[in-house]
Amino acid sequence: MTPKRSRYTRRRRNAPGSPPGQLTVDPAGEAPRLTVVHIGADGVETNPSADLASLRVPDTGLVWLNVDGLGDAATLSRIAQVFGLHPLAMEDAVNLHQRPKFEDYDQHDFIVLRMPERGGSFTTEQVSLCLGDRFVVTFQERAGDVFDPVRNRLKNPQSTIRSRGADYLAYALIDAVTDAYFPVLEAFGERLEVLEDEVVARSSPALIEDIHALRHQLRTIRGAVWPLRDMLAAVLRDDGARVSVATRVYLRDCQDHTFQLIDMIETYREIASGLVDIHLSSQANRTNEVMQVLTLIATIFIPLTFVVGVYGMNFDVMPELHWRWGYPAVMLGMAALAAGLTIWFRRKGWLGRRR
Q1: DSSP three-state, residue 206
Q2: In this structure, are residues 158 and 189 in contact, taking their beta carbons and an 8 Å threshold?
Q3: Do 130 and 85 form a contact (C-beta atoms < 8 A)?
Q4: What residues does 212 pair with on adjacent strands?
Q5: Is the pLDDT of residue 3 over 70?
Q6: Which pairing describes strands 43-50 and 62-68: parallel, antiparallel, or unpaired?
Q7: Residues 196, 128 contacting (CB under 8 angstroms)
Q8: Would you list the DSSP string of 148-198?
Q9: Positive or negative, the Cα torsion across 189, 193, 196, 198?
Q10: Gap between the Cα atoms of 281 and 287, Å rounded
Q11: Cα separation of 228 and 100, whole Å?
């Protein structure tokens, strides 16, 4: 039987102590599929099934190479050779445990992003971005991303993205990843509202499991967004010439979006923690109500048990035992005592609420 792997562990491709810059890919990963977008004065040309022989750094304009799949080391090595990508950057691109970060190499800048994936539970996919003077190279684990708005903007002849440099294209891709978190968090907010209503209405083990699952997903999204803010701050602090002053203005706006995301995440985490407290309080209140009812029932039967104990004593001289109406009188007295206690408890508000 295969042991279950903890959801908190992340498997590294390279063994501990391996030399730096070693390109070790997952043999079970998808084969790389290359999509090349040439942006020049004549327009935009897209090749969704480019081959290695056609790759080059353009003399004019810029090129965006998107790589879907990281399962072939030879293809990735050739891409690194064509664009002059640093071995450490390639190592980080295929080791998918990276957190969002920024590295400034001699030939290019290297940026790691965590892109949200759609599905039943929240997960993230690593996206690595290499920014050069006339190129942008993105590496993704598998096909499917959040870059369709950027591709649609490239189709528009009036779009600003077609008249700017590679740094603005890199900003547009980073901004697309950042904005993709807002619909995810809006869905979390809707789930929290539903859970809040259910916690107040009822309490069950399945409900607390849903709350814990939601808290775990919020913890995952927090781990992806907080480093994203730090990564953007590192890009803005960098004195390199690859990111122009005009593009830095847009990056600051993107950084502001990360602040909004962080505020939403922290608010939702507090609400989720509060739901756990509400659930526990509801459980305690229901337990108290049950114990109160049982206590009142026991209190009513205590004097009745006393009466039964008195008349259960085996004494010869007990007038009531030889009285013809003794039994009905005792039963009637016990019924009156129980009724009196019940009325008194209800008036005190201990037995249900008084209308």
Answers
A1: helix
A2: no
A3: yes
A4: none
A5: no
A6: unpaired
A7: no
A8: HHHHHHHH-TT-GGGTS-HHHHHHHHHHHHHHTHHHHHHHHHHHHHHHHHH
A9: negative
A10: 10
A11: 5
For 64, the enclosing helix (H) or strand (E) is strand 62-68
Domains of the chain, CATH where assigned: 33-281 (3.30.460.20), 285-348 (1.20.58)
For residue 104, list its beta bridge partners.
109
Q: Quote the percentage of the chain above a pLDDT of 90.
A: 29
Token pair in block for residue 14:
């390279």
pLDDT exceeds cutoff 60 at 353: no
The candidate with the shortest Cα–Cα distance to 240, out of 346, 150, 166, is 166
The closest of 312, 283, 318, 260 to 200, measured between CA atoms, is 283
Q: Which amino acid is residue 220, in one-letter code?
A: T
Q: What is the rounded distance in angstroms from the CA atom of residue 97 to the CA atom of residue 102?
A: 15
Q: What is the pLDDT of residue 128?
A: 94
Q: What's the pLDDT score for residue 15? A: 64
Segment 178-197 shows an average pLDDT of: 88
First-to-final CA distance of the chain: 61
